[in-house]
Structure formats: structure tokens, C-alpha cells
Write a structure and sequence with these properties.
The protein is an alpha+beta fold and 316 residues long. It is built from three helices and 15 strands.
């Protein structure tokens, strides 16, 4: 967070939020975007809705509010960090809490952990609070004069996958596998296109006049080959159940941020996401297909991380 102070002495008063400090401690802090807000501006309506001059007003220095953390984050093990939204909804690891802090144990509004039938409604309130945290930033933006609407709508707004004896897997498919027998992250096809997961056996420095260096040894290739084309990816998914989600009302740029959650009787968890990359297609009005894999990460008995895919999302 930052605030503009006396321009003759100090231009920006900057601090790292609580979530930012956690990322600093974990070596994960990465500045990628910057936004500006008019949350502290005073507008005068009778003069054309312009910002009132700040030279005669007292300004507080920049401070950190719980609402400054828009979305909840997870640590390296996938555990959700503490998060607070507007109202009385909050997260403590994978538990959804509701209520207010009080020292009275008999207060009906005291903080309680939600379970069972209360969780689906609480999850909706949680996502609404995320949107409110974003709105409360009062980020300055530009209205697109060529866009007739500033709304965001999807159709359909819900879909149910039905598990039967024939789907999503038939009785001919493998339906049960021990986590020790599933390929680890370094062997997974979904990560094999990334530099850190490619098959790169060590080689000697190339000799003068040679194009490549000689291998140091014969090392087996353990990872899988990735699908090189979009059609090959579809062939992998052809027997899986699917549905199409249409963005019936959105912006011209289609800047979309998505969070995938799993809500069960025990709480809420964020699904792990693998960005598989962008694939070109034959549609002249499309930039291509962007593919994401959603699932969970488990640790086998050998300490290796394994990604188990649940959903495949294709953005067109």
C-alpha cells in the first residue's frame, strides 16, 4: 500500500501488507502490477464532481487493512492462510468462520466454525466478500466508451457432474490407483513442457567445431511427452464429460481472474492449477486456446509430490 505525501519532502509512503510480509519471508514476493485508488479523495458534487483540494486537510499515512488482501492465498503445502473479508466471514486455514470476536461465551454472534449444510451458503458469502474486498480498493480505471455494458455474466451459472458406473470412467478404465504408483510432478505430462521439468541430461562442454556436447552418461527418460498439438490434447479428453460455459456479458479485453475451490463438509480448499499453455487454432477471430489443469497435490510415501487432475479448463 502507498500514499502520496508532501511532494517537496517525500513522494510515496509505502508499506508491505501482512500478506506481502509472509511472501517476503517465503521468498515469494513478486511485483507484477500496480494500481491507483481514489479511496482517500473527497469529491465535491456541486462543482462537477471533482476531487476537493488536499492541501488543507490532514492525511494519515498508509496503513494495512484486512481488506487489502483481496483473495486468500495458500502456502507451499496448499494450506490456505488466514483471510478476512467484509462483514463477519473469514478463513482460518481450511475452515470457514462466521461471527464477531467477543469475550462472552454465551453470545450467539461469537465466532463459530461452519460445517455441514452451512458450508455451501458460507462459500457463496466468502466469494462475495472477495468481490467486496476488490471493490473497496476503489481502483481508478478507464470506462470503455465503445463497450455498451460493464457487467459480467456467465451462462449457465451452475453445472453438475454426475458420477455413475459409466462416467467419468467406465469399468474398463483404471479407477483405483495407489498414490505411490502415480507419476510424480517431475514425470507428469502436464508439466513436461516447462523448462524445470524437461528431460535435460547433463552433457560435456561442446568441443571446438561441434554443435552439441557429448552426454556424460546414458540417463533414462522418466517424464512423459507432452501433447504437442491441441488436437492431441482433445484426444486425451474425448471420453470425459464436458460442458461449455459462455461469457454472455463481459469486457472487450476479457480480463478474467478465476479461483477454483473445493467445498466439503470439513471446510474449503483451493485446487492446484497448472497452466499448460496456449495452443493455436484455426479460428481467425481467436488468439488460441489456453489450457489449465485443476486438481490436488498429494505426497506419496517417498516424499514425492504428485498432481491428481480433476478438471481440465479450456479458455477460448
Amino acid at each position: 500500500m502507498a500514499g502520496i505525501l508532501d511532494k517537496k519532502q517525500r513522494v510515496m509512503d509505502v508499506l508491505i501488507t501482512q500478506e506481502g510480509r509472509r511472501q517476503v519471508a517465503a521468498g515469494q514476493l513478486n511485483f507484477r502490477f500496480a494500481s491507483f485508488t481514489d479511496r482517500h479523495a473527497f469529491y465535491v458534487g456541486n462543482t462537477g464532481s471533482v476531487a476537493y483540494g488536499a492541501s488543507d486537510r490532514v492525511y494519515f499515512e498508509a496503513s494495512n487493512r484486512p481488506q487489502d488482501q483481496i483473495i486468500f492465498e495458500t502456502d507451499a503445502n496448499g494450506v490456505i492462510n488466514s483471510w478476512a473479508g467484509v462483514g463477519d466471514i473469514r478463513l482460518l486455514q481450511d475452515k470457514i468462520l462466521s461471527g464477531s470476536q467477543t469475550s462472552d461465551p454465551d453470545d450467539p454472534n461469537r465466532i463459530t466454525i461452519l460445517t455441514g449444510r452451512d458450508l455451501p451458503t458460507a462459500a457463496d458469502s466468502l466469494l462475495y466478500a472477495v468481490g467486496q474486498n476488490f471493490r473497496n480498493q476503489y481502483i481508478i480505471g478507464t470506462q470503455d466508451i465503445f463497450d455498451a455494458s460493464n457487467n459480467f455474466e456467465v451462462n449457465p451459472d451452475a453445472y453438475t457432474f454426475k458420477i455413475t458406473d459409466s462416467r467419468p470412467k467406465t469399468h474398463h478404465d483404471i479407477v483405483d490407483a495407489h498414490i505411490n504408483n502415480v507419476e510424480s510432478l517431475f514425470e507428469d505430462m502436464r508439466l513436461s513442457h516447462l523448462p524445470n521439468y524437461r528431460y535435460l541430461p547433463p552433457v560435456n562442454t561442446k568441443a571446438p567445431g561441434a554443435d552439441v556436447g557429448t552426454p556424460l552418461g546414458n540417463y533414462p527418460r522418466l517424464n512423459q511427452d507432452p501433447p504437442l498439438t491441441y488436437s492431441a490434447l482433445l484426444a486425451e479428453l474425448q471420453n470425459n464429460e464436458s460442458f461449455t460455459l459462455n461469457f454472455s456479458d463481459t469486457s472487450l479485453n476479457n480480463n478474467i481472474a478465476a479461483q477454483m475451490l473445493e467445498v466439503t463438509g470439513g471446510g474449503v480448499k483451493k485446487l492446484a492449477i497448472i497452466d499448460f499453455g496456449e495452443f493455436p487454432d484455426e479460428d481467425p477471430y481467436s488468439n488460441g486456446k489456453r489450457v489449465f489443469f485443476l486438481g490436488k497435490i498429494f505426497t506419496d510415501d517417498n516424499g514425492n509430490k504428485t498432481f491428481v487432475n480433476i478438471f481440465t479448463i479450456i479458455f477460448d
